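Most newcomers find our protein records easier to grasp once they have seen one. Sequence and backbone structure share a record, each on its own labelled line. Nothing more is needed to start thinking about how sequence determines fold. As an example, a complete record with its sequence and its structure tokens follows.
=====
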Amino acid sequence: MVYNRAVKRFEIKPAPGSGAELASFAELQAGLAERFVGFRDDRRSPYTAVVIPSQSFDADELAKIDGIAHYEERSLFNLMLLRHPRLKVVFVTSKRLNPRIIDYYLHQIRGVPSEHARARLCLLDCDDASARPLTEKILERPRLLERIRSAIGDPTLAHMAVFNSTPLERTLAVQLGIPINGCDPALVSLGHKTGSRRLFVEAGLQLVPGRDGLGSVEELVEALAELWEEVPTTRRMVVKLNDSFSGEGNALLDLGGLAEVAPGRAGVTSEARRSALARGLAELRPEAEGSSAAAFCAKFELMGGICEVWIEGEHKMSPSAQVRINPERRVQAVSTHDQVLGGPSGQVFLGARFPADPSYRLEIQREALKVGELLAARGVIGRFGVDFLVIPASEGGAPEVYAIEINLRQGGTTHPFNTLKFLTDGRYDPTTGEFYTAQGRARAYFATDNLRAPHYRGILPIDLLDQLVVNGLHFRADETGVVFHLLGALSEFGKLGCTVIAPTVADADRRYAEVVRFLDGMQDLP
């Protein structure tokens, strides 16, 4: 990193995206497997995990989420790695974390005193809450970069853990001299909406009828017209931006107002249908709150995307399967979830139940593993999820399972599952899709990032945690209870998240209802 006096700023060397950076990154990544095996085989060896919980997405997409800076707190489950007695965690955030929140996580750790864990934790921040990726902020601060390097110590015994992997994370990895335990940014398009559909075809998965690889609104109109003619009974279609998340980059087009140009209508030409659809895009209904059809179409011009037939049905389910490709390129099933969706048409991720329904959990796991094998063959490592749509079976039949998209990154199901795993030292059984603690107890959970209400504003984390213990809802010795996250967003935004752990999904749902009653009652406390 060199200071340029002419423009009074620091320039990153090697230049981001340059051949020199790409070569350095490839060399770092080539050494990740050896580090992984070394630490796996000796958990008492010195090691450093550098956690960069950056939500590295388009800034306009980030701005749609209230309290987005606090979403970095979802990665605090990584503090539980400190149960390994010689492992150090360097955790970097946009703003300084509330010490009470750190205490809350450290006291959840089994096997080591919290003070011993605290001595191996280095917390650093940018003092910048703007709705931009954390990694971008770090790269703007050369002195912060130097502090991170200093905290790492030996870079040959360290790696970066990231939420998602983009060219920003690649640049940071090269500047720090450590690899990323995650996907090479050069491969992330495999997880975009277009890349997902094409991998599903290659893996032999069933897809919803659609079109991909669309690079403009003009191409979108053409694709919508073709798709309508292919499936003339279609009532609605969904349009998706290539690189978006949590359903916020989706928009629904209702074809009811275009009945006069529907396929099969006498005298209607294909050209007339295309013209009507082009005008009809003004009626697109984006899922993101506050977005407009015009803004969505402008973003589509920049990002491209896909369109699909909207599958109707009152009882359809939206499960997901999580898979890990470790640094040795081994593909492992991690979990399955039934997603809880909301938003205007039910496409925005709100939460999840683990495990998914037994009638299809192993099927979606098998399908996701097929995708994992293809991704591993292309050089992908790290965690990813595959979203599905399931239409329940009619009497005597089997459920219909459609692959929807790949999330080539951590997601809304990553932190609750890892919280369960680290708290209980348990394991996932891929033969049943169940989770068992070290004592052999089955455990399930309900998790959400969207527990919110206007009257939660003003509740301080310390007050919430104190009352949590008084009411007996905290995580207890019987390995059940609630673990909160996004606590930093509570007082300002009236929003937080939680993972409610219980013996069964039904028990977790009941206990979640208790948590909501508990929070609603906090406004009445003296």
